[in-house]
Design brief:
Helix content is 84%, strand content 0%. The chain contains 2 helices and no strands.
């Protein structure tokens, strides 16, 4: 039983850690592309900024869904049998 709890903790850590890395890389790439696009066409800066913040929210939402799933497995694991 202790091994299962250890694997659950490891899996939750991997879900949160890799999700955070992916979200950070995604927001970094999106921010750099926004700066490139606004430098090329400054008149579109307001429209691009709106779309950038919308995408930043969606990227963070995907990460937070992963955190929620990891916390569900850590605290209310449906795969563990009651003892």
């Amino acid at each position: 039983m202790e091994n299962v709890l250890g694997f659950v903790a490891l899996a939750a850590g991997l879900i949160i850690g890799l999700g955070a890395v992916g979200a950070c890389i995604g927001i970094g790439i999106m921010g750099s592309k926004y700066l490139e696009a606004s430098a090329r066409q400054p008149e579109l800066m307001n429209a691009l900024q709106t779309k950038m913040f919308l995408l930043a929210g969606l990227i963070d939402a995907a990460f937070l869904i992963g955190v929620g799933i990891a916390m569900m497995f850590a605290f209310a694991n449906p795969f563990l049998l009651p003892s």
